[in-house]
Write a structure and sequence with these properties.
about 350 residues; two-stranded antiparallel ribbon; 8 helices; 19 strands; globular; binds zinc ion
């Protein structure tokens, strides 16, 4: 394997977090302390319709943790939730998804469709909040794996109390229909994928007992987004560090993991073109075929190559090299002990 860490700097973070500025149960200080203790490199906090934390000075480096403050927009029916990142105001005048997707884009921010395929079967008083405006274009990416939706979808009966006590055990995989949609969308233009925690850490009460479902320390040990940056984050250069994170999120330069099944830091998922160029996911300029997709993971797994939504090869172990001869949208998925562990962003080997 010719990949070396000098080609990039990997950072690992948690996205889509709620705090006491909206309906989350954790305040910023606790969130920052916990994320730092867990060794995360960055977090992106997205309270509902609020950027108050930006005005209160929370965005920036807190020791080695880079904290970015975005917000989650919703339409007038509380559907079509949208994560706006890198913006400096809440577009409260925009009540339709087309308006806020456009507003985020024209202000220079980036936007991700949140929990697009959310379904809930049991709790009628917590309705699902899916994306229904697929005709609207102009978003940068979609949240292909939402930890909270994934977990809530499995709450089907009161036997589910075990799922409340051991929440991470019941995180499954991104919805297959959403992955199919993502693959289809990527044939028209590049759509980045992120993993979101959708952390709320709400307190609930059952009889005399009050406790938190998913305490923040547990929430942050689940779905994580890893990015390959050209330059490492630099505590004394906040603006350029923030821009590198936004660039990598927008361009899909990385992958998503579920920490529950193993720490995926150190994973290498790259492509080597026949002209010698080595590129990370999301990079499509001037590609040349044949090429080789290279994967190296820190623990054994079942490494799967997906092309245009179809599984075309599987290798078990810690590394794989997949020769690629045909154009298409390629992705890597890794399962560990039959559990969904890693999802790469696509290698779009087509001319848009
Ligand atoms: Zn939401
Ligand atoms: Zn949310």
């Amino acid at each position: 394997m010719i990949l070396k860490k000098k080609h990039f700097h990997e950072v690992c973070g948690a996205l889509h977090l709620h705090t006491t500025y909206s309906d989350g149960g954790t305040d910023y200080n606790e969130l920052i302390r916990t994320a730092s203790d867990l060794g995360l490199d960055f977090i992106v906090v997205t309270d509902h319709m609020s950027l108050e934390a930006l005005n209160d000075g929370y965005e920036g480096f807190h020791k080695n943790l880079l904290v970015l403050v975005g917000y989650e927009h919703n339409d007038s029916n509380n559907l079509n939730h949208y994560l706006a990142i890198g913006v400096d105001r809440v577009f409260s005048e925009c009540s339709k998804s087309r308006q806020y997707v456009e507003a985020v884009r024209s202000s220079g921010g980036i936007g991700f469709i949140a929990h697009p395929a959310e379904k809930r079967h049991y709790f009628g008083y917590f309705p699902p909040y899916p994306w229904t405006s697929w005709e609207v274009d102009g978003y940068d990416g979609i949240e292909i794996w939402n930890q909270m939706s994934d977990w809530v979808e499995q709450l089907k009966s009161w036997l589910s109390v075990i799922r409340i006590l051991y929440p991470r055990r019941f995180i499954g995989s991104p919805p297959s229909e959403l992955l199919q949609r993502w693959d289809r969308l990527n044939k028209k233009r590049f759509i980045s994928g992120i993993g979101g925690v959708d952390a709320h850490s709400r307190k609930i009460r059952i009889g005399f007992f009050g406790f938190r479902i998913f305490p923040i320390k547990v929430e942050l040990k689940g779905i994580r987004t890893h990015l390959y940056l050209k330059k490492s984050l630099n505590r004394s250069a906040f603006d350029s560090s923030k821009q590198s994170i936004l660039y990598a999120l927008k361009n899909g330069n990385g992958f998503i993991s579920n920490y529950r099944h193993a720490d995926a830091r150190g994973t290498l998922i790259f492509i080597r073109y026949s002209n010698g160029v080595i590129a990370c996911p999301g990079f499509s300029k001037n590609f040349s075929l044949p090429a080789t997709i290279l994967v190296e993971i820190p623990n054994r797994g079942s490494i799967r190559l997906i092309r245009d939504g179809e599984l075309i090869a599987v290798v078990s172990g810690c590394h794989a090299e997949f020769p690629v001869h045909k154009k298409g949208i390629y992705r890597i998925e890794v399962y560990r002990k039959e559990k969904a562990w890693i999802y790469s962003n696509p290698f779009p080997l087509i001319a848009y």
